[in-house]
## 1
Amino acid sequence: MILYLHGFLSSGNSHKGQWVKRAFEAEGFEVLTPTYPIVSPQASVAAIDSVVQHSILNSPNVKNGQAWCVFGSSMGGFYGRYIAQRYGVPVGMINPALTPKPILSAYLGEHDNPATGEHFCLDEGYLSALEPYHTQVDVNQPSLLLLDKDDEVIPYQWAYEAYHGTGEVCVFDGGSHAFQHLDQAWPKMKQFVEQCVTRKG
């Protein structure tokens, strides 16, 4: 089973999330792409954790020993690493916001998520509330990092320097924060999941 976590101002119905769902389900893997609230970091993590508790850990296959992993894009990579380390499972990250405070601080103010219509306020309190979910690189955790060099939101070097020499790191020329190399990255994604996750029975 795979849990895919979308990025900021997005939803589980995003192009990337649905691409991952279709690609892996065609290979026999179950994929969950929940839409979680972004009104606050606490609300985000509580909703994601609820999915893990009720839809993953409670599933008959996982109860019977089926392995699972997390994939996350952008802020989904930030929360994904936290959740994956909390439950001791592998993590795949796509242009992740591993240090989100300096990125989000440029967007302080009132916002509406265009994908869901959810209204929220991004302020200093929001940024401070991210701190409990900040994690460090775990060299013992299986990981896959996918980066586009021309990510216009997050300097790709931040994640590259953190994970260089740890796990699998794939960097693609060009691209954008949306990540334009899913097709090219697919062999590595498939290999990573096949090594970590059990197909649905």
Note: Helices lie at 15-25, 41-56, 60-63, 75-87, 101-104, 124-129, 156-163, 182-196.
## 2
Amino acid sequence: MGHDTTSRTRRRDRRGGPAVAGNPHRVTPPWPGDYRLRVHARGRDDTDLRGSESYQLLVWQAPAAPDIVYARADRLGYRLRGEADPARPERPEIAYRWLSNSTLGMAATVTVVSGAGVGAVLRAFGADPARPESMRAIGEDLVRRQSIDPWVAVLDVGEAVIAVEYNGWEGSTAPVLTEASAGGRVASMFWNVEAETRLSFAEHGAVLLSVEPFAAIDAPPPVAPAVDDLDFADHRRDKRLMGLLAVQRFTGHGISADDVARIEAADVGFRIVPALPALRPRRPQPGDPLDTVAEALAEIPNHSCGTWPGGSPRRQPTTEGSAKTRTSSPASPPAP
């Protein structure tokens, strides 16, 4: 992990065993002598974001040596040293800083769909528009069953529909992207507690790009303007925020903290039945823990596998997608 500021200094300890302030369990070696101390700091300019500021201290015994500053990039450091704060342009993703303090901060997928109504978006996700449930009730049920069964909440914002999955990822799969984009554009950003991410774009029924953004993205022409100035390799920039900005640029619509508040106040969610034939196009291999279930499902005709309890069949996507495997714990949305 990179740091904004890194420096090395020296210290002479006459007694040995000093502790880090406020934490008596983290102590240096117990004997006196000369030590060197390297301090790493990051997130000191983002103190309004919960958990953003962190430090790492490394202590080892060594003869005294001159102080060294290896890196100094944060603005706070310049102010503390009495130096002029260098002029820097604001990063464009700063509008999404609210995400870290929101209920979506840990794990979510945000999908924005243009050119489709709420009903069409829900059906593309594999949800039944006629079967709404309380988000809170869904979350409590999943916790009780220790399940991560997918579900989605949607919000109509006029020229687009925003779909939010708390701790889910269906919006990053090819079947959903393909079907939801039939009448326009779709983009989604997925992230979870294990720092896994996926940024996806689709248009007119075709997935244009779906990648885990780590460095420069080799994007096709329709996607390039959305990501050209976003450096996903820069540790000082949040991939989640840049991904949401790219989603907004591609679809023309983004998600705001107010949108999340409206979704949670409405307390309406929809359970998802994934497009199993597309997401699992092959039979399981020996030793697969889901082999019994998968074998049973494989015997069910496609038209039955994609039929809602109410009797209306779900249209199967025409493009195959790859199954995703994520390790994540069930999460409940907050009480409205």
Note: Confidence is low (pLDDT under 50) at residues 306-336.
## 3
Amino acid sequence: MLSNKLYQTPADKKILLSIICYFLYLIVSYFSSMLKNPFRNIIIFIFVSATAFFIFNYVKTLKLLASKNKIRSPFITILFILLLVCFFAITVHPIENIKNILTTSPLNIFNSLIIALSAGIFEEFLVRLLMLDGLAQLLKNQKYGLLLAATLSSIIFGFLHLSNLTFQPFNITCQQIFYATAIGLMFSFVRLKTNGILLCVILHSLVDFQPNINSSGSTMSWGILLSIFIPIMLVSLGCILQLNNKLQQLRKFDTNS
């Protein structure tokens, strides 16, 4: 079920490396905050790019599943595409964000782009590559191993946003933890379905490509937040569960044959 190349790197070392990379990122962010933009953002982007390059060379593969696991499920695919479209249309407004950014100064365009790319590259390589792959290896013999790995890595992804308490209120940070967990589940399915990381990086960068991404977030009512992101969680979990079950069926078929 899982790619054979995945086992070239032990699961515990992947998880440990993700923790080390995260704290190194916090240290670099702290010291670079003493600089003015765009130098701060450039330093972070260089660190993120170097970290992603190191992670790729360390794990030796971007594939989580074996190439023979060709899961064709048109209904799940169509349902998930509709989920992505609704998510971006309701919460992200990418076309509006791009228009707003392009009407600003070239420096602001550059800063917005490099911030979005840094977040997309670092967080996806950290969570959807190292953490998700490591947990999938640890839970490989469990019936719902992929579902558990995706859920746990998404929860961890949500709590990584606790670091935002350094510049924004507690309530806003709690909301970010909640909806980041939901988005993490959505991106986990993208990771599993595409068996790669590129689309996750692109979608994540698109979410963060906003004119005010570097400032304190704004709060919304918990009622609106729950009404938007609980369906995202449920649909994502359902899609991951279906994928998990289909892979289990393939695994039993291979064992019996």
Note: The CA atoms of residues 5 and 61 lie 6 Å apart.
## 4
Amino acid sequence: MNRIRLEQESGRVPGALFLAGERVELRTIESEDIEAVRRWMNHTEIRRYIDEFRYPTSRTEYEEWADDGVSSGRVDLLICVDGDPVGRIRLVPLDETRGWGNLGFVIGPDHCHNGYATEAADLIVEYAFTELRLHRLEGKALAPNEGSQRVLETLGFVREGRRREVAVVDGEYVDEVWYGLLRAEWADTSGDSDGA
């Protein structure tokens, strides 16, 4: 398992380095990054699996949406490899009172199938349980999105339920699959001997 390494800014991309793994770095999303993120969210292969980006999003709309997130206390980071942005990962919503967060991630279409989502999610899960001291994380994926389900299952998330025919993908109603991971379950598989 990757251990969290909090590091200083390396100057390779605009955002400040927040977490680093073996291949990926998680950095803050800055105004210079918004166009890349917006392009991913408007890409056919990405938006088909993300309901909140079902409609075209302008730069101005995305900037307003991103600004709202900063004040809401969510964790929203850029996934970078060799200094280049390849995706985005977030804990949204984040409810520290209940000790709960929802994990979401997206990898740009040119960077899929390289394990970047799994490594980035591993870093965020560790951060959520050790730094934020959350009790539970959730994730969800539309049934045809096997890649996202694989990432969650690889990290130890347990399939908890299914909402039937809640979204449309390629003109067909599809189910949404819900996953959960408790801190104690993560500690058992991560080697975190003190139970986080």
Note: Residues 1-13 have pLDDT under 50 and may be disordered.
